Amino acid sequence: MSTEYQTLANDGLWENNPALVQLLGLCPLLAVTGTVTNALGLGIATMLVLVGSNITVSLVRNWVPNEIRIPVFVIVIATFVTLVELTMNAFTYGLFMALGIFIPLIVTNCAIIGRAEAYASKNNWYNSAFDGLMMGLGFTLVLVALGALREILGQGTLFAGAELLLGEWARDLKIQLFSFDYPLLLAILPPGAFLGMGFLIAGKNWIDGRRKAKLAKAPIEKAQRARVTTVN
Amino acid sequence: MSWLLGILALAVLALVAGLILGFAAIRFRVESDPIVEQIDNLLPQTQCGQCGYPGCRPYAEAIANGDEINKCPPGGQATIDKLADLLGREAKPLDAAHGEEDVKKVAVIREDECIGCTKCIQACPVDAILGAARQMHTVIADECTGCDLCVEPCPVDCIDMVAVAVKPERWKWNLDQIPIQDITASSEHSNSEDKQVQTQ
Amino acid sequence: MIEITATSPLHHFPGGIHPPEQKALANQTPIQRLPLAPMLYIPLRQHSGPAGELCVQVGDHVLKGQALTQPGVDNGLPVHASTSGTIVAIQDHPLNHPSGFSGPTAYLQPDGAEQWIERQPIDDLSRLSHREILMHLQLMGIAGLGGAGFPTARKVAGAQGIDLLIINGVECEPYIVADDRLMREHAAEIVRGSQLLQTITAAKQVVIAVEDNKPEAIAAFETVLAADANVTNTMILRVVPTRYPSGGEKQLIQVLTGLQVPADQLPADIGILVQNVGTAFAVARAIDHGEPLIERVVTITGQALSKPGTAWIPLGTPIDHILSVSGFQPANKQRVIIGGPMMGYTIASLQVPVIKTTNCILAPSAKELAPPEHEMACIRCGACEQVCPASLLPQQLQWLAKAKDYDGLKQHHLADCIECGACAYVCPSEIPLVQYYRQAKAEIREQLIEQQKSEIARQRFEARQARLEREKEERLEKHRKAAEARKAAQAARADSGEEDPVKAALARVKAKKAAQQAAEPASESTDAPADDKKAQVAAAVARAKARKAEREAALAQADDQQKADDDKKAQVAAAVARAKARKAERDAAAQQEKQEDGESS
Amino acid sequence: MLKSMRKNGLILGGFAVVATALVVTTQVLTADRIAEQQRNELMRTLNELIPPALHDNDLYRDCALIQAPEALGLAEQPVYRSRLASEPNALAIRTTAPDGYSGAIHLLVAVNLQGQIKGVRVLQHRETPGLGDKIEVQRDDWILSFNGERVRTENDARWRVRRDGGMFDQFTGATITPRAVIAAVQRTAWYAQNNMDSLFAAPANCIGEPLANDPLGREEQPYEY
Amino acid sequence: MSFFIASSPHNHQKRTTSRLMQLVLLAMVPGVLAQFYFFGWGIVWQLLIAGFTAVCAESLCLIARERSPLRGLQDYSALVTAALLAVSIPPLAPWWVIVIGTIFAIVVVKHLFGGIGHNIFNPAMAAYVLLLISFPVQMTSWLPPVTLSGESIGWWDSLRLILVQYTSAGYSVDQVRAVATGQLFDAVVMATPLDQIKTDLAQGLTLSESLSKPIFGAFAGHGWLWVNVAYLFGGLMLLQQRIIQWHIPAALLGALAVAAIIGSLAAPDALPGLNIHLFSGGTMLAAFFIATDPVSAATSNRGKLIYAALVGVLIYVIRSFGGYPDAIAFAVLLANLCVPVIDQYTRPTAYGQAGGQR
Question: Whole domain around residue A212: which residue ranges?
Answer without folding.
Answer: 3-231
